Amino acid sequence: MQEKSERVHATGARDGSHPPEDGRPALQFWYEFASTYSYLTAMRIETRAQDLGVRIVWRPFLLGPIFKKQGWETSPFNLHPAKGLYMWRDVERQCERYGLPFTTPVPFPQHSLLAARIAFTGRDQPWIGAFTRAVFLAEFGQGLDISEEALMADLLLEAGAPAKQVLAEAYEHGAKSGLRAAVTEAEDLGIFGAPSFILPDGELYWGDDRLEMALEATLRAS
After folding, report:
1. Using an 8 Å Cβ cutoff, are 182 and 61 in contact?
2. How would you label 103-131 residue by residue, b for 16+ Cβ within 10 Å and e otherwise?
């Protein structure tokens, strides 16, 4: 594993955090760490939301169980080669546009269970945005294996989280059952891919290219 000084550090949000309820309209951000387009959104959503006065509710979940119910054992980008080739080039173009590093992780999709459990455990903590960005940068910016516990511990520390405590909680029954419940909730909300956004009125927006629309609609709904 690379030393911390060699990794790209997570940036993209201003300093400071907000309590779970602070009077701002809230937009739920549903993301999967193995998702390429979730990477694009995660790296810019907090800054865009702060600019508009919207509070982000971080909702990490897993797409694998949802895909399996459709008979897919892997990403649809692997099942449909032409679609996959387009996706990789499209993400590369978008990363150039946003000024983000990009590399294709191997394997794809990455095994994201541990990262998702950690994020679920810390979903309401001040460090959740920094940790989420750090995981995506490690995966899609440097091609690191996000299933490695040592890497997760380093990223937690860099995000200002109590790594030992959070990792212990991520292996507990509460995190495991809670993440399963999040997948069920995502299905109930009609979510079929990531990134997805749920407005206060339950309206669903899907895809990185719908981020600004979802934020603006959240403001209108409030």
Report:
1. yes
2. eebeebbbebbbbbbbbbbbbebebbbbb
Element (H, E) at 31: strand 26-31
In angstroms, the CA 140 to CA 129 distance is 16
Contact at 8 Å (CB) between 101 and 95?
A: yes
Question: pTM score, two decimals?
Answer: 0.88
State how far the Cα of 183 lies from the Cα of 60, in Å rounded to an integer: 9
The helix (run of H) or strand (run of E) holding residue 58 is: strand 55-60
pLDDT tens track for 2-33: 333 333 334 444 333 334 467 899 999 999 99
Q: How far apart are the first and last CA of the chain?
A: 45
Residue 87: exposure state from Cβ atoms within 10 A (0-12, 13-18, ≥19): middle
Using CA atoms, how far residue 59 sits from 19, 110, 185, in Å, is 16, 19, 10
Decide: helix, strand or coil at residue 29.
strand
Sheet holding 55-60, edge to edge: 55-60, 26-31, 196-198, 204-206
Long-range contacts, stretch 14-21, CB < 8 angstroms, 24+ apart = 14/47, 14/50, 17/126, 18/55, 20/124
User: Token digits for 132?
Assistant: 């989420």
